[in-house]
Amino acid sequence: MESHSWQEWEKKLAAVTAAFEAEIAGATDEKAVEAIRQRYLGRKGGVLAGMLRTVGELPAAERPRAGQLANAARGAIEARLSERSAQLAVAALERRLAEEQVDVSLPGWPVPAGHRHPISIVKAEIEDFFVSLGYDVVSGPETEYDYFNFEALNIPKEHPARDMHDSFYLGETTLLRTHTSPMQIRYMQAHAPEVPLRVVVPGRTYRRDDDATHAPMFHQVEGLVVGEGVTMGDLKGTLLALARAIFGEATAIRMRPSYFPFTEPSAEVDVTCTVCGGTGCRTCKGTGWLEVLGSGMVHPQVLRNGGYDPDRVSGFAFGLGIERMAMLKYGIEDLRHFYTNDWRFLAQF
Ligand code: DAH
Hints:
Layout: H1 2-26, H2 30-41, H3 47-53, H4 63-99, H5 118-132, E1 136-137, E2 143-145, H6 146-149, E3 174-176, H7 182-191, E4 197-206, E5 217-227, H8 232-247, E6 253-260, E7 263-272, E8 289-298, H9 300-305, E9 314-321, H10 322-330, H11 337-340, H12 343-346
Parallel strand pairs: 1-4
Antiparallel strand pairs: 2-3, 4-5, 5-9, 6-7, 7-8, 8-9
Helix pairs in contact: 1-4, 2-4, 5-10
Bound molecules: 3,4-dihydroxyphenylalanine.
């Protein structure tokens, strides 16, 4: 009886150990290992504690051996638990390293960079050119007095540009400037009688126009030089150098007599056609030339209005449209592309 009972106890302990081994092998995380630890080694409900309680029921001669066996089993279980914990920790770390692996040889995410607007590019090129010649770069008010926009520039009352249909009037004496030329007067009045004056004025201008080549808002650059002995030759040399800086060194210019109320004489300036290089094509209507700006020698009355004595100084002036320059430089056919902000258009610059 007794030996039978002892054998049963030993068998039971072996079964416990085997069950533990099966469970611990199947544990896949630290939480499962902890649960198994509680189940087998827990002081109160633990399986091993239950086994130890039954040692007292064995014959006295067998008890020490049973105790030893139970302790050995406990030691083995504890060792196996720590071993499994360590294995799981290593596996978890390896899994995490694999998941978070970064392939440093992969190309990075492209960061989409913006583009400068073609108007800004051409404006900056024009400014840079004139800065290199020692010109001042200033801007003026976009809402202007009738006096600076027209009166002081010799533009008579009956001139069509003064018509409500051509200009945006804000009040009786104020309007959105129709050109950058009023800054000729403002700049002269601010600096007279100082000479020489060399200034360019880039900025927005407004007219009641809207088609493929005219927008209600557009950009101009005004130029003004005033000094002793300033000639039309100076004007021509300056504009030739400008045309070459913007359109390329092979560019030529030609000046055609024209009329502006604020210059005398006045000239319209053409550059070699940017499409055909001067041989004649559809863009230049077979002439080989494209008109790019208006210019002339500052009218004596305009010099006077600016505070200068036309008997002592002379000057030249010019005004160009940045949109027109950009259209010719880049071969853009419709002015409205500049204002629709279609990134497919803008991304080309
Ligand atoms: N202000 C003129 C316009 O908007 C352009 C112009 C022509 C400006 C001749 C000038 C000039 O300074 O001399 O059409």
